[in-house]
Amino acid sequence: MKLAPIGLAVLGVALAAAATLGWRHGRRAADDRVTIRLSHWQLEGTVREGLQAVARRYEELHPRVKVEILVVPDTIYRQWMRTQLVGGTAPDLIEYTMWWGRIEELAPRYFTPITRYVTEPNPYNRGTPLAGVPWRDTFLDGMNGVDGYNTLMRDYYAPTIAMFTMRLFYNRTLLREITGRDEPPQTWREFLALADQVRAFARREHRVVSTIGNSWDNARWLAEPVTHGMGSHFSPQLDHDHTLSLSYWEVALGWQRGEWSFRTPELANGLAVFRELGNASQPGFVQMKRDVAMLDFLRGHALILCAGSWDASSLRREAPFEVGAFRLPLPGAEDPVYGPQTLGPLSDGSVQTSTPFYLNKASAHPDVALDFLRFLTSVEGNQIFVNISQWLPAIRGVKPTDFSRRFMPFYDGYNWGAATSYFSGTGTEMNMFFLQEMHRLFGPAGSVAAFQDEFDRRGREYSNRDLRAHLRDSRVAFNSDDVSATARLWITPGSDRLPATPALLEAKYYQTARVMDPPGASAPTSPPQSP
Q: Is 134 in a helix, a strand, or coil?
């Protein structure tokens, strides 16, 4: 049976009306749900899937809430985030890390501190061993890591969801082809011998193979354990506060006072070890990004890749060969060259949790966003995330998977620099200067002396920038305490002293200012000398 043209027209109008009503009904139903958005830059598939799984479980518990997750590549994330924050269109929850710098500027302007909530129990831990435990104390690091607690603002800002360690990943198949065995080197001298074997193999087989697949980013991850480990014998001399670790203040002021430099014997040894690692990498790696290093490793052009445990699941998924992992074997006390100035084996130290999510001050639904953070960092939420992402947990009582367990921190050793490192110890500017100038270490024309000379010549300029920025941020921070501190003096009968924390911050400020600009003298311009 054929419909008349008029009938077709009526049917079309009816279908269009039905579709419109259906769309409006669906849109109205969707609008009835509270929507919160979360942004991050973790492109690893397992991590995206893990966060999505937590969001879907939260929606099951709260049917009137929708959690949207935005994934933005890390190469543009900071610019994207700042644009969104300035424009008032940023998500409710935003991943950020203090390693990107200027968090003291961003935090008070755009993010809501969560200090008032961290002493309350996490309601999603009811029925678990963490029931009734303050939210802060459910974290493996007490939420005191640099990504969760801002020491300058003295505020908790962001709960974290994972813990990481640095490892050397290696191609078992290629190692067996080169050496006849599939177990990695256990000592520094064995590592150097392996590098020689790889060079000989590449020449003999006419293949492009380097010992380490490296890049500008990966080199930073190598530099940190090297400067920590090789400097551990010297680090106690800077531990003026006797905390068995080095603070930013101790490293930065030590540099300004001339208590250390890269001519200090232990740190010079660290540069020499770092140079050996760079020379075992593919030529020109300092101009490359981490994606190049990853591709070289996956294509069999590099035997080893230095990366964090965050990359482990991606490597297992993408590599066409069996991937192993081991810790960088730094020189020990038995080493014939570095032994006398080496404290001993390097531990991973007191590993801090990371991957923090900050609460946007402009969030339309801050209570819901905060509630989602509680679930994300509960025993149930973190276990869901860990099971799928294959990352190490951040929450006490959450069990790592069989795969991620192999990346648990190693504690049987020394670590006197977990809080900071020598190449970034004075701040963002010094960190960037180190990375920009590290090329002077490598290649036939490179040397430790060339690197030291450049740091002696220009290092103080960058250290001064860091410290003056820190003084500026500190002044803003403790000035904001004046009203509350004065109020406490009036409210507390018989009190004639500032609260301890603001007083300590102000004392540190003036201590630093005196070192930077001694009374009656111009700012120092000569490079720091070795002790």
A: strand
